[in-house]
Amino acid sequence: MKNIILTGGSRGIGEAVALQLAANPTHQVYLIARSGEALQRVAAQAYQRYQHRNVFPIIYDLTTPAVGLQEKLPESLTQVDVLINNAGFLVNKPFEQHSEEDWQKTFEVNVFGVVRMIKGLQDKLGKERRSHILNVGSMGGFQGSTKFEGLVAYSASKAALANLTESLAQVFVDKHIAVNCLALGAVQTDMLKTAFPTYQAPLSAEEMAKFVTYFALEGHQFFNGKVIPVALSTP
Ligand SMILES: NC(=O)c1ccc[n+]([C@@H]2O[C@H](COP(=O)([O-])OP(=O)(O)OC[C@H]3O[C@@H](n4cnc5c(N)ncnc54)[C@H](OP(=O)(O)O)[C@@H]3O)[C@@H](O)[C@H]2O)c1
User: Fold this and answer.
1) 3-230: which CATH architecture?
2) pTM over 0.70, yes/no
């Protein structure tokens, strides 16, 4: 039985992970995104598929103070076993056209939003049992990987997330909290279409979600502070 908080659960990889997590009726899955309608749709889909209600939509914008999230979580939630920081934002334009706002929004969601989630939930992580924080990174932010002109801010933000993962694993070393990062390769989602409009990814969201779901639930037994590339190809 695990209490799981998943950001970016309204579509793409997050939606697919949510549906796979929900298959186990003992899990309680709290789904975060800005679109309440999309979150409700995912929760309804999970119910239709499994005939139990264990997916709970929480409307929260990661670029806002974490107190807004804390107010929306049930008081009975005292232990978060798995926090999956999956929500992401991507701008695709040449470096010269990246505005100050583009840089800020990218880092707000992909880095500061993750910090907000972790700080906001810190008193519920590793409290009763060992917890796992899984940050969803990107091959774009993996040192030495192929880089793309339009994805400068995105890749830099994911590199920051990878480094944050390594640092936080050290910060939490005595607190029963493991922190890992999966640096994903291409997966067929809305975000991929923004980054590489004509490219067909080798994996669907459902296929990648199988590995992400398994790793989120079990990875902390084997890894801590690791940034792991999960990629079949480069676009
Ligand atoms: N697809 C790929 O090829 C690929 C490759 C490498 C890494 N990744 C990473 O995998 C993760 C999921 O990607 P995806 O392709 O599934 O993306 P996606 O289809 O664009 O979905 C992004 C998710 O993030 C949520 N989100 C965005 N901004 C938010 C905010 N301010 N507050 C709360 N939620 C927010 C969105 O929900 P709302 O819009 O409703 O808020 C949505 O659920 C991301 O971290 C991405 O960087 C993806």
Assistant:
1) 3-Layer(aba) Sandwich (3.40)
2) yes
